[in-house]
Amino acid sequence: MHNLRLSCLAVLILLTACGGSGGGGGGSNSGGSPNEPAPTTPFGLTTHPAAVATQFDDALGSGGAIQLTAVASGFTEPLLMLPIPASGGRHALLEKGGRLRILDSSFTLEGTLLDLSSQVVTSSEQGLLGAAFDPDIASNGYFYVYYSSARTGGRCAASPYPQCSRIVRYRLNGSAGNWLYSAVDPAADTPLLEVPQPFTNHNGGMIAFGPDDQLYIALGDGGSGGDPQGNGQNRTTLLGKILRIDPHGGTPYAIPADNPFVGATDGSRAEIWAWGLRNPWRFSFDRNALDNSGLWLADVGQGTWEEIDRITRGGNYGWNLREGSSPYNGGSGDNLIDPVWQYGRNEGQSVTGGYVYRGAAMPALAGHYLYGDFVSGRIWALDTAGGENRQLLDSGLNISAFGEDAAGELYVVDFAGQLLRIDTSGGSAPTAPPTLSATGLFTDLSPLQPVDGLVEYDINVPLWSDGTVKRRWFGLPAGADITFSSNGAWQLPPGSVIVKEFAIAEDARTPSQLRKLETRVLFHAERGWIGFTYRWNNAQSEATLVEAGASEQLSLTRSDGSSFTRQYDYPSSAQCRSCHTRAAGFLLGLRTRQINRNFDFATVTDNQLRSYNHVGLFDINIGSASQYAAAAPITGNASVALRARDYLDANCAHCHQPGGTTGSSLDLRAVVTNAAMNAIDVAPTAGDLGIIDARIIAAGSKERSVLWERMRRSDPAQGRMPPLASHAVDDEAVSVVGSWIDGL
Is the pLDDT confidence value at 85 over 70? Predict the structure, then answer.
């Protein structure tokens, strides 16, 4: 899907591919020792920490210029909502796994219209990706779906690959004047088009009827990364294109006579309407446009730009000669059409297309194209007349699609399973405190003195951050406690805050002399967790909010006295959500396996779990800390298998797990078996980095393992993992993970 999709997805799908099959690692992983002191040892905490009140509460709690109102929930990976014409106000909601659900006019679930679960392939960005209802459904009962299929049961007959994309037609039960919305036989399909898919990502998948009653189809470039087959600029293939067909005029369809390449003698496919697209994730027609010139489309980027395009007949949108308006790999071409708007990775990582607003409830947004980002959760409004773009809300959701009802009001489809209506809030856009001192988190910045109630903590396996040294704190609002989980992330209520300081020894010969670089804050607003970065000044006296991300070249000295420079990145708020994902529970360090360790509480060293439980920080009495597993530090004495799996858990699993932002089937959590990771001896789907006979993890051969090779690279543009905010190789982890792979 979203590059599910994602450039984040294209980049991330493969990039953190890690895992194994067979022995070693898995659910019984118990890593390091909890180090629980004897019962007679004094506790690190003796009283429940004071409530923490910050300046984020008033600034961020109310939302923004719009608000989201939940109207339905309980779905499984929903990807689309659309109205059903002539149905009494019904809506359809599409689930990636293969079900087309029916909601009544009040968005109450009526049932399942079509269940293709047995036919749909859902690995990576495959699935039931699109649906459209015929403009003449009142008389013919037709509706159409786009889904990914394997080469079985007569499907994908023309595909040289294991999978294809299918566009098929179904008919409602009943008859004209009495159509029923009961379950349609999944075998009663009329195939229109099958498109071979060389890889499992970049499937596109949107289908919709235009104002000309023709069916438009969005297809990605075929997948992997960088369009290795050159499909975007090849008009002899349907991949990387918008197609336009007439599903009524022929068998299985007709090609409209005014399509731009009808009669072409160079092999161009006559179905093509526009080309040069990477992974179009949702397009729509402006309902006020009298013709098909009002086609707006979001195209997911490779690694730099996410773009919004206004699609015109025969237009070439540049991929893979260009990404957005910038050359890609030195490419150039004539008559390439620039995006109407583009944004960089500091704002989001996987654009989700929306609609031009033509409803009545939000007149200030009339004529604005509303769209969002799957990873960052941000929603923007682009003025279709003046070109001004402004952020409306940081939603905290994984936005897989927008929906438009019959009245022109707009909705957000959250991949986590809910449907929300976009309403006006009547308030102004939220603003974060501009400086660290203004946050209310510290009474003094030099030396750093946290307010009463902020609890300092440490974890067993930190996320690799280019050798920086970190301090961590958390705080809770009045009357709150932590919802405990033995294997997953802990849940902290709205009003909670997580703080992390990053510092570095600029001279390795004096490791205790640290320069503070940044302090990151995660605040739990009413609408979800929001991240902020505060960059320290050279005097180390204040840290200032980084609005859109930043970077600098650090001048560093090695232990032998030699000097070098290294890029250091300060993430934007949107980039924080690249790691703090919904699937990971947003909080990466506050979980039992990570916290189960000793900590110096200044007056005494104690096990953190033991201390927290003693003062009633949890919603339950968790008992003895020794009964819980502890993650194994990469430099510890645990087995190579445990250290490797726990490192991959801490550095990769926030994206690569069920429901993660990559859309892949990889599961890099330490609590699953090697076989359940779906990585060992599995071929990569987003590029092989030039490795012969590559596997995500090749058992017994780290040199054939894409995972290991990505860890060894320092440039994110060349496949470095992690792909954000890291420009240095973790040599210790490369060695440990490599040894584990060789021993599989």
Answer: yes
How many CB atoms neighbour CB 594 within 10 A?
A: 25
Q: Residue 429: which pLDDT band, with cuts at 50, 70 and 90?
A: low
- Structural domain range at position 458: 437-627
Q: Is residue 40 part of a domain?
A: no
CB 300 within 8 A of CB 2: yes
- Bridge partner residues of 522 (DSSP): 498, 531
Average pLDDT of span 282-302 = 93
Query: Taking Cα atoms as reference points, which of 292, 272, 281 lies closest to residue 232?
Result: 272
Report pLDDT for 517: 97
Q: Find the range with the poorest average confidence among 11-15, 308-312, 684-688.
A: 11-15
Instruction: Give helix then strand counts, H and E, for the chain.
Output: 9, 41
Q: Which of 336, 340, 350 is nearest to 306 (CA)?
A: 350
The answer to whether 345 touches 575, Cβ cutoff 8 Å, is yes
Specify the CATH number for the domain of residue 390.
2.120.10.30
In a domain, 445, yes or no: yes
Non-local (6+) Cβ contacts of 408 within 8 A are 287, 357, 358, 359, 360
The burial class, CB within 10 Å (0-12 / 13-18 / 19+), for 222 is buried
277 closest CA partner among 319, 231, 332, 327: 319
Model pTM score: 0.74
Q: How far apart are CA 600 and CA 712, in angstroms?
A: 34
Q: By CB neighbour count within 10 A (0-12 exposed, 13-18 middle, 19+ buried), where does 147 fall?
A: buried
Q: What is the pLDDT of residue 9?
A: 33
Q: Does one domain contain both 277 and 173?
A: yes
Task: Kindly state whether residues 367 and 453 are assigned to the same domain.
Answer: no
